[in-house]
Amino acid sequence: MKGSFRHSMHWLHTWSGLLVGWILYFIFITGTAGYVDTEIDSWMRPEIPISINVSETAHLLALAEKRLYQQATTAASWSINFPAGRNNPVFNIRWQGAQGNFHEVLDPRTGQVIAVRETGGGRLLYRLHYRLHYMPRIIATWIVSICSMFMMIALISGIIIHKRIFKDMFTFRPRKENKAWLDMHNIFSVLSLPFQLMITYSGLLFLAFTTMSWVVSASYGLGAENKQQFFDEAFSSHPKIERADITAPMFSLSKLVIESEQRWGENEVSSIQIDNYNDANARIHIRQRQSDDLSAVKSVIYHGVSGELLHNSAEREKSITNDVHRVLLSTHEGLFAGTFLRFLYVLSGMFGAGMIATGLILWTRRKRTQAQKENRPHKGLALVERLNVATIIGLLIGIAAFFWSNRLLSVDDPNRASKEIMILFISWVFSLLYASFRTVHRSWVELSWLAAILYTLLPVLNYFTSQRHLIISIPQQDWVMAGFDLTMLVFGIVFGIMAIKLQLKNQRKI
Fold it and tell me: Domain residue spans in the chain?
């Protein structure tokens, strides 16, 4: 019975991972990029200077208000975001007017507007892991949810299969090729297992409001209004107040900021959001900085005209649902993580992607060996092999092309962000087409060389297209820009070594 049960788990583990493996690889790669989205944003907007010693919040507020009074006196809403650590390093303002939404980055010393190129940046890469692209959000949510369910099944069945799970972590047999791929798969799996369980389980919970919306409907009823009532009660959210269309002067923002700093501490205000600006129903939302732990970020809501305190998150009734959701979200996105812990997040994400990649390759190698023994063609296997090449290497080529496009497209092009992501997918499709017309072995070698060239030359591209390249960033201790360039250089070297090893291996077979 035990043997048959474990054998059934082998089958379940293999097919639950294989059927959605390419999408899971995409989710892991783009999701891992999300842990350094701020750093990627900085590289893709080199016009923003190195972090400046920021003045007091009161000084920054005065600069922001001056600019908003110049540009947005008729706007429906204002937003002021102060530099507040890694998660929000840029001083910027936003407003919503009759002609759309506007965004400006300000110099925290002078308040002057910094001309910043339009770009998708790291935030776009992060959103790809749950929004995908070029499809309605509801469809993307269902696809990601189903893939996450398959991932959870693969993880649980994998744990059952590996009865010697800790021994597998220290086993590597490089001379036995198929076993070497299995050992690499096991090592990646075991080392990142806690991370993968956390990231998959929490992801499933976030998506459950779509995939299991009937649970909410059973208690609250059908319709958008009833669903919103659930979110308001569960997460203590406050629905947006409609405009009264009665003009009224705004209460002093500086007084409210002073009051908030007395409550939280000096320079602890992260952002100010004003809804229904200059209206009798105006609301002012003030938010605290993100802390370095899992504690909730505090916020207050004031009446925009009278200055009356309407809501204080610190005084709200405790909600277990809210607390669980907050903790899971913080751990899933690494919002609280410092430099070292963020590095572990990235490493675990890369191990997760490596686990999926080695699993896909291991399956094709076993099937290819079996087909050769039986001396029969296997058209389905040939398709999977090429999809492996196009996904594992092609996606990384697409991301490199995404970075290249950021520097080669015209800075003044207002559609740069959409063109950047378009180039990513075009490059990815190119890899698939290339792999379709070349042998599998040559595709691996040649696309690895292409990836090596693209990543290795990114620091060179940065040298010619910005004033924050390695020769300047290292002496100035601009570690965000220097770290990005050096990381791309390491990726290029790794792909180059991989290409050389694959080429030598193919030559030995000839």
Answer: 1-47+117-234+320-325+337-391, 57-115+237-316, 393-510
Mean pLDDT for 194-206 is 91
Nearest to 46 by CA among 452, 498, 478: 478
Closest CA to 236 of 177, 301, 176: 301
Which pLDDT does position 470 carry in this prediction?
92
* Token representation of residue 327: 């903790």
**C-beta atoms surrounding 230 within 10 Å:** 18
For the chain, give percent helix, strand, coil, nearest 5.
65, 10, 25
Task: Measure the CA–CA gap between 231 and 240, rounded to whole angstroms.
Answer: 13
Q: Are strands 309-312 and 299-303 parallel, antiparallel or unpaired?
A: antiparallel
- How far is CA 213 from its chain centroid? 25
DSSP string across 147-181: HHHHHHHHHHHHHHH-TTHHHHHT---TTSHHHHH
pTM attached to this predicted model: 0.90
- DSSP structure class, residue 35: G
Number of DSSP helices (H) and strands (E) in the chain, helices first: 21, 8
- Residue by residue, DSSP assigns 209-234 as HHHTHHHHHHHH-SSHHHHHHHHHHH
What's the burial of 349, exposed, middle or buried (CB within 10 Å: 0-12/13-18/19+)?
buried
pLDDT tens track for 412-440: 888 999 999 999 999 999 999 999 999 88
Tell me the pLDDT tens digit for each residue of 382-410: 888 899 999 999 999 999 999 999 999 99
Q: Which amino acid is at 411?
A: V
C-alpha 34: how far from its chain's center?
2
Query: pLDDT tens-digit profile of 449-476?
Result: 999 999 999 999 999 999 889 999 899 8
3-state secondary structure 254-281: HHHHHHHHHHHCCCCEEEEEEECCCECC
Helix, coil or strand: residue 319:
coil
